[in-house]
From TrEMBL, chain A:
This is GL24819. GO terms for biological process: post-transcriptional gene silencing; regulation of translation; sperm individualization; spermatocyte division; translation. Keywords: Cytoplasm, GTP-binding, Hydrolase, Nucleotide-binding, Phosphoprotein, Protein biosynthesis, Translation regulation. Belongs to the TRAFAC class translation factor GTPase superfamily. Classic translation factor GTPase family. EF-Tu/EF-1A subfamily. The lineage of its organism: Eukaryota, Metazoa, Ecdysozoa, Arthropoda, Hexapoda. SUPFAM superfamilies: EF-Tu/eEF-1alpha/eIF2-gamma C-terminal domain, HBS1-like domain, P-loop containing nucleoside triphosphate hydrolases, Translation proteins. Residues 67-76 have a biased composition (Acidic residues). Residues 243-466 form the Tr-type G domain. One of its GO terms (molecular function) is GTPase activity. It catalyses: GTP + H2O = GDP + phosphate + H(+). InterPro entries: EFTu-like_2 (IPR004161), GTP-eEF1A_C (IPR054696), HBS1-like_N (IPR015033), HBS1-like_N_sf (IPR037189), P-loop_NTPase (IPR027417), T_Tr_GTP-bd_dom (IPR000795), TRAFAC_GTPase_members (IPR050100), Transl_B-barrel_sf (IPR009000).
TrEMBL record, chain B:
This is Protein pelota homolog. It is found in: Cytoplasm. Keywords: Cytoplasm, Metal-binding. InterPro entries: eFR1_2_sf, eRF1_2, eRF1_3, eRF1_Pelota-like_N, Pelota/DOM34_N, Pelota_N, Ribosomal_eL30-like_sf, TF_pelota. It comes from Drosophila persimilis. Residues 372-394 have a biased composition (Acidic residues).
């Protein structure tokens, strides 16, 4: 209809006159259909009967099928029959006939009823009744066509649940070694692919891990492209000419000068323009807080600036000669440790900033100071390499004595916390004056005793950790926001695997399917991203309300387990009150914070040998090690530590104090 | 609750007439009524009449019925108690043995007859009828993106609303989204306070959060109140109290109730007392593990040796269907009292009560250490837990 019709003055009666005869009868009447076409769509009783009768008369020796096959395979059989119904046996001599029927029987016994009669017969004739070849051909063709599971459940659904229970015998809690084979408690009997619904308290996730790889193809369809590409090759192709990425978190006690140090580093490496810096200088002067001018580079919200402390993890990046470093500036204040944890889960290496000022270092390092807690936290979150920065050394006149005093204290502590001595370096510097940041030290008082590396050099020397690019995709969501244009963005770090544009992914515990519309890394659009990258993804096909911070994006072919109850091996830090059954805790897992309850103390174990000291202890005191079961109120995505190191680590916190760290050993 | 009549004979048989006056009384009634009791109350029933000609009419009649209770249903959020059972007193509308569901209503009396009244039940009546115990506190525990608006009454903590908003993180060059998200979140919390907090009843409103969220929210709320002219908020500004909490999850209410400033203000509420008692238990477990025990078996054995100084017991254990199990717990309480011990019955609707219910529901602080209890390794610790779990109301 033309846009320029004058609708207002239109006479509707006239307009619709023409339509009447169209609406009157079916459109089909106007077209004719050829008899052959018609036959294809019309049901002809004779046809089916004839084919069956010939089939029976010619295959007298056909075996009766087992009953269990019949009811379970109904669906597949139905499909196969449609194919074989209109199929007539080829005319053969007696000898061949016998060969053929035995062939068909043989093949049937292997593949069941999933393959049509016609296909078997044709293939058998093609390969001259060679069973081996026929099977090869049929099975290969089958897997290529679709990854339809050849095994189907042999029991009705309710019984399946009970068999599963009995089949998954609980491994003895006495010897929990983390190196048990990957599918240690796999469930033997095949199960129905469960619908991807959130499981309740008493119905743990039915889709076992082992099953997923097999059933997921029918659960979640993915494009051939996505399922067959080789991540490692792609990675080498795309990233060969680029510098390697590393994520570094800056931690330390409140007011140790983390933000200032990073701000100054950014400024010195030319990542902050002169103009912006000038603006910060002017504004901070106005507030009478000139010493905060560098910190303002990273502390952007009004609240943070007014109060002069970092509250959320600030992010920026610098480029060194060989690396691209993403700086994560963690808040030091006690109340913002949850933010710091979510930042630390994304980091590969850490920079611990300590204040050298007299009294300040001590207050940060003594019990309750964040220097201690942060260092233990990042270690338990899997950070191995640590650069220690002795900041504000200018306030004590670049005294060597003070430097060595702090270094000795920290060294013994860090060793206790589990850092290797070779992975820890100590650098004196001043964040405010910029001494020893990007250039070797100039100050005479410092150069007289220090000739080591400057900070940028230390960062340069961090080793790049291995990236699990070959593994299935896992990405934790740390932020959700409205992007420019349509849809919304989530950002986070790709823990393992890779994502390409247009991939299908599963979101969170609800396992909703979404499509990747675009990928950006550091404000540049990408077509594919790999493990270790900090990215933002624009998703389509999922509601923004169904994504929460902390949920995991996973590969549709190997979805992440979803559970409300799991077993973990925990190390209890120094606690004021012991952990008992029913102890409510906050569970930190990646960026996720979820209330949980310690619902069972399975066993307390020896710290170093891993032997069970006592089964079912009454309570867990400070510095003990134990196997416990945790239950969350909502289902969460979690992996066993043995399968995915990154996603198997947890933290337990109570009343603002980290009480335990642990790893997931078993998922219910 | 008002006690209108009490006729309990020496054999502990008899009936009690009560009138619930506020929603919390329903909770008490829920704890009083057990299966097998008979309840008499006025109710509305649909009655069908068939006339001689065969046409039938149905009408709603208000009548007084007595039923033998078979099923008890309690909605914690709406505080509605439903009792289902068979009619045991025939009247002109309802036949003997016909099923009826009684909806206990506020300000309508009901008569409760038990085959046996135990001390726990009688105490509960006394407690319910004590007018001094009603002290309502509203609490908002929040963190960025998450808030719980709770009402704390003498024996219940009710989560009136849970607000969960995902707030975009600050990122280079787009702080606005963060600030906009935050403002939206605060607005929702404020609306929820306006909707759910009855300032006539509530003594004070606690705003608890980590960091500066509470200050920010407080500022925002009163700015908005001035701007939009919310009289209700402005008049009650003095009732607001800012406290520290480590997170916005429900169980950080426990920290809030331990805060010295809060304790001073709401000193005598049951909730605060329970939190303190449980904390004492945990402290004892840390310092002298041989003097603190939990689990039915351990506690019973400690009671046998008259060692219990303070018994902590969750009221969900008394709500269990099994009459014998209830009797066991009642006798435990009585024996501890006889031995001069103190008994604290926790409400399973409070945070600390929830925790105790998870901790098998019963715990005890002893007068003297009994290390032999610990050594007697036993495998049926779960028995107590199972007993506690099945009757958990929420």
């Amino acid at each position: 209809m033309s846009r320029h019709r004058i609708v207002r003055t239109m006479d509707y009666k006239d307009e619709y006159d023409g339509y009447d005869d169209v609406y009157g009868h079916s459109v089909d009447d106007d077209h004719c259909i050829s008899p052959t076409d018609a036959q294809q769509w019309l049901y002809d009783r004779e046809r089916g009967r004839q084919s069956i009768s010939t089939f029976i008369s010619k295959n007298k020796d056909i075996k009766e099928e087992g009953e269990h096959d019949e009811d379970a395979e109904d669906e597949a059989y139905e499909k196969a029959r449609r194919d074989s119904e209109s199929f007539q046996m080829p005319e053969l001599n007696e000898m061949d006939q016998a060969k053929l029927s035995s062939c068909v029987d043989e093949v049937r016994s292997v593949v069941g009823d999933t393959v049509s009669e016609r296909r078997i017969v044709e293939t058998s004739m093609k390969f001259d009744y060679d069973i081996q070849k026929i099977l090869d051909e049929i099975l290969n063709g089958e897997t290529k066509k679709s990854a339809k599971p050849t095994l189907r459940p042999k029991v009705p659904v309710p019984i399946a649940a009970t068999t599963v229970k009995s089949a998954s015998k609980p491994p003895p809690p006495a010897k929990i070694s983390l190196k048990e084979p990957r599918r240690g408690f796999e469930i033997a009997s095949p199960k129905l692919p469960s619908s991807p619904v959130v499981s309740g308290r008493n119905s743990p996730v039915e889709v076992g891990e082992g099953d997923l790889s097999r059933t997921s193809a029918s659960l979640f369809k993915v494009s051939k492209d996505q399922s067959q590409r080789n991540a490692q090759q792609l990675y080498e192709k795309e990233r060969a000419d680029q510098k390697s990425h590393i994520h570094m978190i800056v931690i330390g006690h409140v007011d140790a000068g983390k933000s200032t140090l990073m701000g100054h580093l950014l400024y010195d490496t030319g990542n902050v323009s002169q103009r912006v810096m000038h603006k910060h200088e002017q504004e901070s002067k106005k507030l009478g807080k000139q010493s905060f001018m560098y910190a303002w580079v990273l502390d952007e919200t009004g609240e943070e600036r007014a109060r002069g402390i970092t509250m959320d993890v600030g992010q920026s990046r610098i480029e060194t000669k060989t690396k691209i470093v993403t700086l994560l500036d963690a808040p030091g204040h006690k109340d913002f440790i949850p933010n710091m944890i979510s930042g630390a889960t994304q980091a590969d290496v850490a920079l611990l900033v300590v204040d050298a000022t007299r009294g300040e270092f001590e207050s940060g390092f003594e019990l309750g100071g964040q220097t201690r807690e942060h260092a233990i936290l990042v270690r338990s979150l899997g950070v191995n390499q640590l650069g220690v920065v002795i900041n504000k050394l200018d306030t004590v006149g670049w005294s060597q004595q003070r430097f060595t005093e702090i270094v000795t204290k920290l060294k013994s502590f860090l060793k206790q916390a589990g850092f290797k001595e070779s992975d820890v370096s100590f650098t004196p510097c001043s964040g405010l004056t910029g001494e020893n940041l990007t250039k070797t030290a100039q100050e005479a008082a410092l150069t007289s005793w220090y000739s080591g590396r400057h900070l940028l050099d230390v960062i340069e020397n961090f080793k790049i950790p291995e990236r699990a690019i070959d593994r299935p995709l896992r990405m934790s969501v740390s932020d959700i926001y409205k992007g420019t244009g349509s849809g919304f963005c989530i950002s986070g770090r790709v823990e393992t695997g890779m994502i390409c544009v247009n991939d299908k992914v599963l979101v969170g515990a609800s396992r909703e399917q979404a499509q990747v519309k675009s990928l950006t890394m550091d404000e540049f659009t990408q077509t594919s991203v790999f493990a270790g990258d900090q990215i933002s993804v624009t998703l389509a096909g999922v509601d923004i309300n169904n994504i929460t911070v902390g949920c995991i994006i996973s590969d549709p072919q190997t979805p992440i387990p979803v559970t409300t109850r799991f077993q973990a091996r925990i190390i209890v830090f120094s606690v004021k009150v012991p952990i008992t059954m029913g102890y409510p805790v906050l569970l930190h897992h990646q960026s996720l914070i979820e209330p949980a309850v310690v619902c069972k103390l399975t066993a307390s174990i020896h710290k170093s040998t891993g032997e069970v000291v006592k089964k079912k202890p009454r309570c867990l005191g400070s510095n003990s090690c134990a196997l416990v079961e945790l239950e969350t109120s909502r289902p969460i995505c979690i992996e066993r530590y043995a399968d995915f190191k990154e996603l198997g680590r947890i933290m337990l916190r109570v009343a603002g104090v980290t009480i335990a760290a642990g790893m997931v050993t078993k998922i219910r | 609750m008002k006690l209108l009549g009490k006729y309990v004979d020496k054999g502990m048989q008899g009936n009690v007439t009560l009138m619930p006056e506020e929603s919390e009384d329903m909770w008490h009634a829920y704890n009083l009524i057990a299966e097998g009791d008979s309840v008499r109350s006025t109710t509305i029933r649909k009655v069908q009449n068939e006339t001689a000609t065969g046409s039938s009419t149905s009408s709603r009649v208000r009548t007084t019925l007595t039923i033998a209770v078979e099923t008890i249903d309690f909605d914690t959020q709406a505080c509605v108690l439903r009792l289902k059972g068979r009619n045991i007193e025939e009247n002109q509308y309802v036949k003997m043995g016909a099923y009826h569901t009684l909806d206990l209503e506020l300000n309508r009396k009901f008569e409760l007859r038990k085959p046996e009244w135990d001390t726990i039940a009688l105490e509960r009546i006394e407690m319910a009828c004590d007018p001094t115990q009603s002290a309502d506190v509203a609490a908002v525990v929040m963190q960025e993106g998450l808030a719980h608006v709770c009402l704390i009454t003498a024996s219940m903590t009710l989560v009136r609303s849970k607000i969960e908003v995902s707030i975009p993180r600050k990122r280079k060059g787009s702080v606005q989204q963060h600030e906009k998200g935050l403002a939206k979140f605060y607005e929702q919390v404020m609306q929820s306070i306006l909707r759910h907090v009855n300032f006539d009843v509530v003594k004070c409103v606690l705003i608890a959060s980590p960091g500066f969220v509470r200050d920010q929210f407080h500022d925002y709320m009163f700015q908005q109140a001035v701007k939009m002219d919310y009289k209700l908020l402005l008049d009650n500004k003095s009732k607001f109290m800012l406290v520290h909490a480590s997170s916005g999850f429900k169980h950080s209410l426990k920290e809030v109730l331990q805060e010295p400033a809060v304790v001073a203000k709401i000193s005598d509420t049951k909730a605060a007392g329970e939190v303190k008692a449980l904390e004492q238990f945990y402290m004892m477990l840390q310092c002298e593990p041989a003097k603190a025990f939990y689990g039915k078996k351990h506690v019973l054995r400690a009671s046998e040796s008259q060692a219990i100084e303070t018994l902590l017991i969750s009221d969900n254990l008394f709500r269990c269907q099994d009459v014998n199990l209830r009797k066991e717990y009642v006798s435990l309480v009585e024996s501890v009292r006889d031995a001069g011990g103190e008994v604290k019955i926790f409400s399973s609707m409070h945070i600390s009560g929830e925790q105790l219910a998870q901790l098998t529901g019963v715990a005890a602080l002893l007068r003297f250490p009994m290390p032999e209890l610990e050594d007697s390794d036993d495998d049926d610790d779960e028995d107590g837990a199972a007993g506690g779990d099945d009757s958990d109301s929420d």
